[in-house]
Design brief:
Rossmann fold; globular; two-stranded antiparallel sheet; binds zinc ion; 10 helices
């Protein structure tokens, strides 16, 4: 009820318009949602070779650490790009709302159902954290909005106190894969609280997988047993 009132108020203050066609009422209307370039989640996030339900292949497992990664859509889709860009600079009242249709579609896909099963009953959902300085600039972490939306869909409990980003700055895209990986050493720190847990690691976009796997390695070193990954887009 309260959230309904808040939604109505928010719509009066700044009506939502579809990123695809501009129609009022939502950030992506039902027609445009139907035309999203959904990712079939049939590749390994490391080598991009075929792998069912986004499972990390044997060869990439030592490097990537996470068991598998699923994403909602391809980043090439202009509507998906718009939604992600929109959320980064969105008014704080509705950041998660923009991603909900993408998340809902994906959790009901075959890969989404397989992920839910693999996570079991007691998974911890951990958003890839921003550095505190970046968080202050932006006001919120878009990954944590996705984490909360996944918790609402019954994927586990959000833990934002486990993983911290201890270094400011991102790896440079021009660097080689090894150099990028090295530049992520020591970027994250994790609390031993996570020992023995199954984790769903969440970010907005998986590009090279380097950030996600650096976060996953940190969690594994802190004792997490099984780690899966979820993102809105691959690109
Ligand atoms: Zn539309
Ligand atoms: Zn692979």
């Amino acid at each position: 009820m309260v959230s309904g009132v808040r939604e109505t108020l928010a719509n009066l203050l700044a009506p939502r318009t579809c990123v695809g066609c501009g129609i009022e009422g939502s950030w992506c209307c039902v027609t445009c949602i139907e035309h999203i370039a959904w990712d079939p989640n049939t590749i390994c996030a490391g080598c991009e070779r075929l792998s069912p339900n986004g499972t990390t292949c044997e060869r990439c497992r030592p490097d990537m650490v996470f068991r598998g990664a699923i994403v909602a859509a391809t980043y090439d889709d202009p509507n998906v790009q718009q939604l992600i860009r929109f959320v980064k600079y969105a008014p704080a009242y509705d950041i998660a709302g923009a991603f909900v249709p993408l998340i809902t579609h994906t959790v009901h896909s075959e890969a989404g159902r397989a992920l839910r099963e693999a996570l079991g009953e007691n998974a911890r959902i951990i958003p890839v954290p921003l550095h505190p300085r970046r968080l202050r600039e932006r006001g919120f972490n878009q990954a944590s909005c996705i984490a909360h939306a996944l918790a609402e869909q019954g994927f586990g409990a959000v833990r934002e106190d486990v993983l911290r980003r201890t270094r400011f700055g991102a790896p440079q895209a021009r660097k080689s894969r090894d150099a990028r990986r090295q530049s992520m050493d020591g970027v994250f720190a994790a609390s031993p609280d996570i020992a023995g847990a199954t984790v769903l690691l969440v970010d907005d976009v998986i590009t090279t997988g380097v950030t996600m796997s650096a976060a996953a390695r940190t969690l594994r070193d802190a004792g997490a047993t099984t780690i899966h990954a979820f993102a809105i887009a691959r690109g």
